[in-house]
Write a structure and sequence with these properties.
alpha/beta; Rossmann fold; 21% strand; globular; 284 residues; 7 strands
Length: 284
Amino acid sequence: MNTQSENSKQLKDLVKEKYAQIADQSKEANASGCCGATGCCTVDEALMVDDYSKLEGYVPDADLGLGCGLPTQFAKISEGDTVVDLGSGAGNDCFVARSLTGEKGKVIGVDFTEKMVEKARLNAGKLGFDNVEFRLGDIENLPMASETADVVVSNCVLNLVPNKKKAFEETYRVLKSGGHFSISDIVLEGDLPEELRKAAEMYAGCVSGAIQKQDYLDIVEKAGFVNMTVQKEKEIVLPDDSLLAYLPKDEIPAFRAKAKILSITVYGEKPADKTGCCSPGCCN
């Protein structure tokens, strides 16, 4: 195994371990850390997490306070759509999506943390939903056929994936021709201090895994998506008390002047097949 593969596996193992712990915690406990990473820092929940409680389909037991946006609100989900949620956690976005796609639609959540999948399935069972399904799987190798989804959503997850290029290629693969995605994520403008980037807890807390905003958008475009737009953007300002764990106090002003942590919600479309063919070669 080469060094890059080893690093990728280590990061995945780290995130899986952290989110297995988070699955057993309350939303309030998760909100006390960076995107749920217990003990990494004390961050006001409002800095990262948007309020789901007023959205139709909201299920409090499925809300672990781990998101950084409201992708389902921007995802243009229609009745009867098949929706795939990447990194579905306890099912929060899936249940909101289900309220939009209705009984005629289908929602598939994918997560690679066993405890999260178990918790999501338990929540779906309590609700009696037979068109919401949760699968154990890796976003870099999604456990579903090509051209399955009308819509893909994800909330503060792809920044944790080591190979973002592969993740967006997989997103493209599973979308139907003419389908689209809406994904909320953490990105950067400017460089994080090395101490902050290396911090394992901050990685699991969704900050150190982030890449530059323009690099992120370039990956999306190179995957083949068109009509891309940033639907929402907000700056996340970490308190001085949090930064002191990683930076000397006198370096904090310089950090704030040259670097920003942003929550963005990005939209993109898979180009429609204009040939009218059902599959490659069918028109020959």
